[in-house]
Design a protein that fits this description.
Elements: E1 3-14, E2 17-29, E3 33-38, H1 45-52, E4 60-65, E5 68-69, H2 75-85, E6 86-89, H3 101-111, H4 116-129, H5 145-156, E7 163-167, H6 175-192, E8 195-199, E9 211-216, E10 219-221
Parallel strand pairs: 3-8, 3-9, 6-7, 7-8
Antiparallel strand pairs: 1-2, 1-4, 4-5, 9-10
Helix pairs in contact: 3-4, 3-5, 4-5, 5-6
Keywords: ATP-binding, Nucleotide-binding, Transport
Domain ABC transporter: 3-239
Protein name: ABC transporter ATP-binding protein
């Protein structure tokens, strides 16, 4: 399924008036595809991501996740939706210093009630997918910045979300490591068949994005889609 934002308007109090953060924004992100959202600081990128994550309720418009309209859901229902349907990769990994790479992932599954063995197997599968199977027993201070970000990405995928939201994943990385992380996100999007939204200020490594949306002053401009289509699996390259 996909992520759909339809006619989203979001405003914040600003003295006696209201500041418009998002102005009638609509965006569709199909399963197995990667949408990059770019724009200057303060343009509305972070607000768009927060609305897509159901962390902020817009003034008007609808957010649909995996076919479910989130309008009117209670706080508890939204929490449950995020737990099962939405993976979020925050700008800073915020890994727990006392836990190993594998344990960072396992704790997510255990919160969801999975058995320890099942959680361990899934954690090792994802660490292998991000190239860190041999680092499973290391703690954050024993990992490089790029490795910590890879653990962060794997952790967001632990509960098999249908939507993956990624916030500035390369901001603390050098050029080479940043390019590797963006490539990894693109590959995992297709492998895990997620509808992925990537907010970034780095336009230099977006060749694997299926579409690039630009946000300026709360308005979204979406060029002609470049979605790769064919007879393969959703999001699979065919040429």
């Amino acid at each position: 399924m996909s992520l759909n934002l339809t006619d989203i308007t979001l405003t914040y109090p600003d003295g006696e008036t209201r500041l418009t953060a998002l102005d009638q924004v609509s965006l569709e992100v199909p399963q197995g595809s990667l949408t990059a959202v770019v724009g200057p600081s303060g343009s509305g990128k972070s607000s768009l991501l927060a609305v897509a994550a159901t962390l902020i309720t817009p003034d008007t418009g609808t957010v649909t996740v995996d076919g479910q309209n989130t309008t009117g859901l209670t706080r508890g229902e939204l929490t449950e939706l995020r737990r099962h349907k939405i993976g979020i990769v925050f700008q800073q990994p915020n890994l727990l210093p006392s836990l190993t790479a594998a344990e960072q992932l396992q704790v997510m599954a255990q919160i969801d009630g999975r058995k320890p063995r099942t959680a361990r197997d899934r954690a090792m599968e994802l660490l292998d997918a991000v190239g860190l199977a041999d680092q499973a027993g290391r703690r954050p201070h024993q990992l490089s910045g790029g490795q910590r970000q890879r653990v962060n990405i794997a952790r967001a995928l632990m509960n098999d979300p249908t939507v993956l939201l990624v916030d500035e994943p390369t901001s603390a990385l050098d050029h080479e490591r940043g390019a590797a992380v963006l490539d990894l996100i693109a590959r995992l999007t297709r492998r895990q068949a997620t509808a992925t939204v990537l907010v970034t200020h780095d336009r230099t490594h977006l060749t694997d994005a299926d579409q690039i949306a630009e946000v300026h002053d709360g308005r979204l401009r979406l060029p002609a889609p470049t979605l790769r289509t064919g007879s393969g699996a959703p999001g699979e390259r065919t040429g």
